[in-house]
Amino acid sequence: MFPFLKVIISNVLKGPSTEPFPLGKAHTPKRFRGSAVLDPSLCITCGICSHVCAGGAISMTDTPIGDGVEFRIWHNTCTFCGLCEHYCPTKAIHMSQNWHLAHAQDEKYRCCETKFVQYPKCLACGKRMLPLRRDKLGTKAIGSNEAEYIMKICPECRRRHTARNQLQIIKPDAERR
């Protein structure tokens, strides 16, 4: 006569089927996309992440001194799409599992993460320069001392260095003739 009593009793015996969040720790799925996090040591300031950002949440601005870039992620406008992580050539930005981003309406303009990415200085002349990506060197050069040095010098010094090396290769060939 009362079939719903059977359902109620079975549900009471099974216990709660929801997350215990207010009273206990909530489970976060392994592939959950939370807030974006930048590793400044890997960033080459290419700007691809800010270009592909669906919500326009990422901005990069030069510092007044010119020694680097202020990298900002506005969590208030981030859509957690993961495009920044997908397109970053050096994997400097990744989506964390942090989902604790709730904030009051009056705090929405302070809900951002700012990190400083410093431009490296050329080992040869000391000028500031944009970092060189490893994949631009070619597979033969990666791992050698020469490749490590080339990555740490500016394009102008790189041209001089390459021209000097080419002359050293040409001179022994000319001497053999």
Describe it.
The protein is an alpha+beta fold and 177 residues long. The protein folds into 2 domains: 31-119, Alpha-Beta Plaits (2-Layer Sandwich), CATH 3.30.70.3270; 120-170, no CATH class. Helix content is 29%, strand content 14%. It is built from 5 helices and 5 strands. The protein has helices spanning 3-14, 48-52, 83-87, 145-151, 155-176, and strands spanning 36-38, 58-62, 68-74, 93-95, 112-118. A 3-stranded antiparallel β-sheet has the order 2-3-5. A two-stranded antiparallel ribbon has the order 1-4. A hairpin with a 5-residue loop joins strand 2 and strand 3 (68-74). The protein is elongated. The model has no long low-confidence stretch (mean pLDDT 81).
Assign the CATH architecture of the largest domain.
2-Layer Sandwich
The number of distinct structural domains comes to 2
Q: Biggest sheet: strands, sense, closure? A: 3 strands, antiparallel
The helix-and-strand class reads: alpha+beta
Gyration radius (Cα, Å) is 27 Å
Strand content: 5-15%
| N/C terminus separation | 109 Å
Just give the CATH class of the largest domain.
Alpha Beta
Output the helix-strand order: HEHEEHEEHH
Q: What does the overall shape look like? A: elongated
